[in-house]
User: Fold these one by one.
Assistant:
Number 1:
Amino acid sequence: MKLYLTKKKTQTGMWIIFVILLATFSSCSKETDAPIESGKTLVKINMGGSNFGTDVVKKGDTRASGSRSKQFIIPITDKFNMVATWTPENTPLADGTVAGRKDGLIAATSVLTPLPIGTKYSIAAYNSAGAYVTHQNYTYSAGQTPELSLSPGDYQFIVVASGSNTLPTINFNQALSSINFDLLNADMDFMYFKQTMTVQSGQTNELNVVLKHLFTQVILTLNTEAIGAVGSIGQATITPNYSVVSVSLSDGSLSYPPTSTASSKNLVFANSTGEILVSNPVFIFPNSTSTGSITIANLQIGDITKPLTLSNLPLLDGVKYKLEFVIQAAGINIGNEIWSGGNLVYDPVDNRYGFTASDNDYGNYWFAGYTLPKLLDGTNQGPSSAINGAAGDPCALVAPAGTWRLPTEAEATQLIDRTGPNGSDNPHNINAYDPARYVDTFDGGTSATNLGMFFGIQGNPGATRHDYLFCVYAGAYHNENTPGPTIGNEGNYLLSGTSGGYRELHLTGVAGDVGYGINIGQAEANTAYQIRCVKQ
């Protein structure tokens, strides 16, 4: 009997130990999850990244055009202009379509950026009446999916984050409608998210978070390839940048208290010399009721020294803007016409027509009579109105509209005659009997510059190369989807014919050739050409 009792006690004790060990193991295996309290369920938080505002332009907003790219032309000298393009990133138009889409077929979308590792963020939950329930603070790591344990019901979820890794002090533990706080530092990349959701018991509840940047970001790019490298650049500033902004946690709206005053903010370039300068991104408090201006105190390129000021720039809270300054030839006067300083290009993102920064660069390839260029992705062998746009002259769409056009056959003939051996645009600087045309790489050396034909001089002009018409040998796509043998070896330029048809200015020759390899022929309907525009 005594042996029996001892055995039973031993078995009972072993069973108790087993149960304790099992419970301990189970507890340890879930230590990374939020504890589920009795009667509650889990809400998984999926941190999807961030974007800049896409809903800031409403119908009826008198500044709705601020969602489109705006282009300004600033004279620099009698030969060069500064073309400035102010572009918001993926902001929809007042009708809900995206800026830059001519067809209006794509709904408004925005660029989604993953959260940087180390981003500080907070998640807060309020009930449907706005009463505080809970909040948690986190530091983001790859693949992180926080969880909140909540009772079933309706909630308002708020997520705030700082890409600057410093969150403002926020007292979450009060009524949501009462939480407002001031921020004094526009360098803080403050982001916000809100969503109402019903938390249901017995199923997976997931909250997909995409944070919206509340402050405005500006990046400035300066391209001086058409003239040469920047020697020095003075301080660049953007105005206005207000001193204080108030944030409402209940909806992420911004307001500017009477104590908030406007000043300027410096734009700092990563490099201060070179042909392409890019500023570090800056955040500002612009106050969306105003427009802005950007000033560069002094810009020195070669013997040109000039301040730059650009005004009346649309500035909306929470939008990312890019300002590009590109120096382009104002026009090259030769052959009794003013020719554009570069080949014709089209930017589909901004729906913008313009010219290459340098006449050494390839432009787009164009089918005769169409206003959008050939797609080079293998889907556009021949012209199609669905792809290549409406009928018309794409030169006429360069801003300001109607100031440029496609050159005619007669004008190309005039250019050939006036730069010929006896032409009025021939300086005879090398040989009295040769034409004033010369085939060479753009810089006359063995660098990466392209081959082409100079007009108006009998040799490579060297440092003054930007003063002459240079038609780059970008070739053409002769009814082909892959680059053909003419690209890099010949010049093929589209002309309008005297009888309503289209013609081709054809240039040939190798580096060092006198420019005799020039003629005008018939343009082919399935061939996509380069275009060099003339002044209207």
Number 2:
Amino acid sequence: MRKLTSTLLYSLTGAAAIASLSSCKSNKQAEPQKPMNVIYIMSDDHSYQTISAYDQRYIHTPNIDRIGNEGVRFTNSFVANSISGPSRACMLTGKHSHANGFINNSTTFNGDQLTFPKVLQQNGYQTAMIGKWHLVSDPQGFDHWEILPGQGDYYNPTFIQMNGERTQEEGYATNIITDKAINWIENRDENKPFCMLLHHKAPHRTWMPDTCDLELFADKTFPLPENFYDNYEGRLAAQKQKMNIANDMEIVYDLKMADKENEIHQGMYEKWGRAMYNNMNPAQKAAWDAHYDPIIAKFKKDKLTGKALAEWKFQQYMRDYLRVITSVDRNIGRLLDYLEEQDLLDNTMIVYTSDQGFYMGEHGWFDKRFMYEESFRTPLLVRLPGGKKGDVAQLVQNIDYGPTILDLAGIEKPEEMHGESFLPLLKGEEAPEWRKSLYYHFYEYPAEHMVCRHFGVRTDRYKLIHFYNDIDSWELFDLQEDPSEMNNLYGKPGTEEITKELKAELKRLQEYYDDPIRKEFVIE
């Protein structure tokens, strides 16, 4: 790894260190160009379906869209393990879960290992981490950090400071995190380049909107996904899950039906659903009551059951989720406006993504975890000054983020990182040797939502998944003919050759990334 000082980092992409060059038209020496700053914005559980740059059925997100409109929209962006903590560990280390050690949310991230912020810090960058961390251990490799403990709270959240002090702050988490980010940029050392990780809690469950957004979408009825009533035929693992809106989304905890009379009871998290309200101040409670009390009263009167109840849950879920997204989009607009006012847009790469995708009723689900498209796929919009504008269709994964940011800073990728730099794609360059397949591995079972352990491979057209541990089940999908992944083709006549090819590729990837599972389960 070569070390570069902040005064020698290269310009447009930071791809090489240069000295001042003499002008052919003048005896004056050209000013060395400044190294590129990085602002990496990541929300939690933000589905690509609810960003209008990807899908215009549900919501308009002009500020998130702006990042893509002024830069690149990745149309095939994926994660390596679709669950919050492990996904974040993959992003920080550039390695798959088995290599970074944080395989599920019951483990603790080993912060002593190499991460891209550490490498940047060692090479003259100021680094900051603000918002949701969710890796149990304290952040390392940052000059400044302020993080939410665990999942954090939407209202009046507590933050942990670098000195270990915990402070509760009045307001709404998305606004406060943005305030802290702007404040840090305002007070940074302007003689150094910076990399800031800005991680929103939103729109993680339980989708609690800011008071100013409570009435949004109140009169809108959202169309049910075509496979909302999926019966999971031919997909054994899907039959075992516990993330169905009709059966598993909780009335009090998820859907805010914490009535004052304490008559509504449903779900193991009911006490937490009622406790969330208690964290609000009087003004927040007044706004909350004005919105939810009439909904609660009508819900109690209607006594919904069966499909009527399932579809009411879906509508309530969609409205609250989209209200929370509205706040995220508004605050990204605040940040972009600030950067423009401070003349920082021309020297800052801005990334917007999510730690994974999310189900918006597809297959009847909420949450993530599965290798199916809605949770495996994630939004990725990148604004690189002077870079390409438009779409990028190559397969990228969150293990690529670290190598890309290091490449931007002119730093060679550490050998232990699995990911690859997609900086050439951001610059509009040809990448003929780019990967043709992706590897995925999910570990958290048995646990909440009961999604079985599985690993798999995805190409541009096909996906092969193997569920293991408590079951032994294969699934094969033709994403071109069956984008909703309803028809498991595994074992059906005519699929022998593609199955053989995909198994060979899956085996190759497990060997390439040195996943120990290949020794426990030999692919035949």
Number 3:
Amino acid sequence: MKGYFGKFLKVNLTDKKIEDFPINDDDLKKYVGGSTLAASIIYNYVKPAMNPLAPENPLVFATGPFVGSGIPMVSRAAICGIAPGSGLWGEATTAGSFPMRLKGTGYDGIIITGKADTPVYLLIKADKAEIKDASHLWGKDSYQTQEIIDQEAGEKNSTACIGTGGEKLIKYAGIMNDEGRTAGRCGLGALMGSKNLKAVTVSGNLKAEIADSHTLKSLIEEARDCIRNYPNTNAYKLYGTNMYIDLGMRLGDVPTKYFTKSIFPVEKLHGPAFRKRYTMTNYSCTGCLIGCGRVIKDFSEDIKKVDGPEYETVAAFGPLCMNFDIDSVVRANHLCNAHGIDTISAGVSIAFAMYLYEKGIITKEKAGMEIKWGDSKVILKLLDMIIKQEGIGVILSKGVKEMAAALGADPEEAAHVKGLEFPMHDSRAYQGAALSYAVGPRGACHLKGAFYHLDAPGNESAQELGITFSDKNNPAQKGALTAKSLHFCELYNSFTLCQFSPMTAGMIARALNAITGAELSTIDLLTFGERSLNLKRAINNKLGVTRQDDKLPKIARQALKEGATAGMEPDMDLMLKEFYEVSSWDWESGKPKKEKLIELGLDQAAKDLWT
């Protein structure tokens, strides 16, 4: 198919074997790219009760057909594997220039298996790929690693690397690239570290052939106009994703005091507060007209520049911990970036420790310190202990599910779904979001349902697919709506496209046709998304997931007494039953029904799950 090179680079680090891995047109038509194509590859490695960190388990970097096409806001890559934190399906996406340069090497992605005897990094150019010694990089932080490799590579390149978090196999370690960009969720940095792989460096400017360049050219201009006229473009430029924190609090969507409150002094941490206190600029990923990335200059004597923080980070180290010291939020963000730690899971784990300290489950003697709400020095101390794997930081580095088990806390107080910590969008604010957390492929993920984004005034991106919104607090018909929303959101990590792109579904379909030569209608996009969701569900089913795992813990669903969601609790039973019915998932086992899998062309999954 056009729009692809039709091959991945496959690297076995154990025997140092590097070879091309061809992808046939049938698989490209069926799985498109990104996390969905990666899932089709990883599926064949999945075995019940497998150890995610075993050398034979793959780590997959995957671009999509949109990357390198000229469509704006498409420099994204999915990084996928079985998540070290949950033992289930794991995916994260990253942006910057790395995705564009990865595809510029002439490969649509990379499959990495095995484990090197000593630390190594991959150097991939348009004409060759090498496994290089990285002993001198082990122990370096992500910024140092990128700087050293930049000097060694000797030309324009982008590096995706791990920091201390990945080296020490911290279960929510991320993968950093282009300074402060990150594939943060699911602990894939630990999977990379388990292979003794410090970094992947790519450089190249090869272009895949386009099916209809004339039509694509007009679509590029149409997409640019769409972005320029998007109501939120200027706000993103000014405040980044943290522009949402004001509206989020008014909607009851910003988790506060470890999911027990929703009201806080937002003026201390909102976008204008950052711009007033710091010298800030914005950062654009390659081909983006918006530039929602934040850069703080001259933060302190020891930290001259900080990438971010973005909304999720501000909320996680801010109101979730009842911390309104803006400097400490910035510093925590930088520590996570430097050492390759997911800011969401780290913030939730620290807030859980504060919650348990207040309840007396964690004591001063056990922790070696007092862990009181809002103590910014303690937050930074705990984060340092997580990074260094010292004291109580070892327990906190395992995430809230294992924290609860190790500390003897009620599992219903651990804010996670399927081992992934809750993001900074409260499940009581949108009934559909609560359901998407419960059934989504990687657990509590704010991007898979994205109700905070889709269910916004003036958003028309998915209306052509029949995704229209009513009362966000009414659970009626949210099962069917959430199914469609999940299918639509699967497209972004598959094609690959930034989730903040305002391109409508119709524009996305026309762009895919122009790039690849496919002849698809807009409604066909939902079939792609449905196939993707069911494939990832089949992976999780093979790993032991059942309907009993499709649930929210009490701490994140019980009604609050204040704020916009006072008295509201997601009606999970009603929504789950409708979702299962419209999705053709079996209510007893939690598996997609055999006929549904066959309908979607997932014949092997049908055989594996139902024989």
